[in-house]
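Researcher: We're teaching a course module on how sequence relates to structure. For the next exercise, students receive a sequence and then see the predicted structure as C-alpha cells, so they can try to spot secondary structure elements on their own. Here is the exercise chain.
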Amino acid sequence: MSSGNTQSIDAARPEVWGKDLMADIKDNLYFTQNGMMGEGENNIVQIKNDLKNKKGDTVDFQIVRKMSAVSGVTGDDELEGSEQQLTTVNEQVAIDQWRDGVRLKGRLDEQKNAFSMRLAAKSALTVLGQEFLERQFFLKLGGVNNITITDVNGTVTGKYCSWSNTPDYIPDADTAAGSGDRYISANTSGATSLADTDVLTPALIDQAVLKAKTCTPKIVPLRVNGKDYYIMFVHPHQAYDLKQNAVFNQARREAEVRGKENPIFTGALGIWNQVILHEHEYVPYLDASVALNSFRGAAVGTDFAKDAYRALLCGRQACLYAQCDNPNAWSEETFDYGNKHGFSIAIMGGVQKTMFTDEYGVIAVDTGSNQGA
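Model: And here is the predicted structure for the students to work with:
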C-alpha cells in the first residue's frame, strides 16, 4: 500500500463549507449567544429538527399548556378518576427557502486582491444569513406583515415578513383601544393618539408583567438560575428613553446584572420586576410617514399617528424555528467560460410565533420615543 497525503474531494468541499456556514450562522445568532434558543421548552426560540433527516413541508410542535388551578385530593381520598388532563396544542410551522449570492468580477480582479475572495464571500454571506434569520424572529414575534416597514435609517426590512409563515398580527381593535389580551400602548387612547412623549417607562413594563401573569393562558417565564424571568426586547430608541428615567437608573445602580454567569444576563440592559431587558435594533419600528398605517400592512389596520416602536415581552416558547437539512447551504458556480466565480447561500426552514390555542406567548408594547428617528 502506498503512502501519501490524503486529499479532499472537490465535490465534497461545498458540503463542508455549507455545514460550516450554517454552524456559523446559528452560533452567532443573538438568541443563541444569549442563551435564549435551543431544543428545550425553556427557551424564547424553540428549535425542532424533525426535517433534518426526513422529507416534509411542515413541522409539528407539541405545546403543553400550563395546568389549571390546583385540584387533586387530600388524605386517603381516591385520586383515581379525579386526575387532570394535560392540555396540548399542536402548532404547525411551514418551511420555505431563502437564497442570495455574490458574483465576482473575474479572474484578473481576483489576482489583484491579496485576500481570498472566496473567504470574503463566505464571511459576507454568513452575516447576511444571520441577519435574515434574526429579522424573521422579530418580525414574527411583533406580528409584522407590512412589507413597507423600514428601520430608522429608511432601509426596508419587511420585504420577507411572510417568509415561511404569515405573522399573526395584533388585532386592530386592540391597537385602536390601546390595550388587549396581548397588547399595550403607551397611550391608553390607542395608536391614533400615540405621541413622541409616550415613551417606555418602568410603569409600562409593570403593566406588561401584570398582563403576562394574569392573561389566559398565562405567559410562562423562563427559569434562569433557579428564578423566573421574562425577556423584553426593546428598540435602541426605547432603551435611550428608559436610560433617561430616574427610577430605572436608580434600580440599575442598586441591582446591576454584572457578574451573572448565565449568558442571558451578559448583554442585558438591566432587570426590572422579573424582566431582563435586551436592546436590539431589529425590534419592530414603524415610520408613520412611510408606512402611513400600521405594523399590520398597507391600507389595513389601525393608523398610527406617530412613529412607533414595538417592545416585545416574551416567555417560554414565544417563537418556533423548524430546521431542515440544508444540502445547498453553500453553492459555487462558474460563468463566462470559467472566468467568473459565484457563490450562493440557502436557508431552508420555518419561523413562526407560537399560538397557544388563540393567544401567543409574547406581549407587544407600542411606544413613541423622545429620541425620534
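Model: If you want an answer key for the exercise: Residues 1-12 have pLDDT under 50 and may be disordered. The first strand starts at residue 37 and ends at 38.
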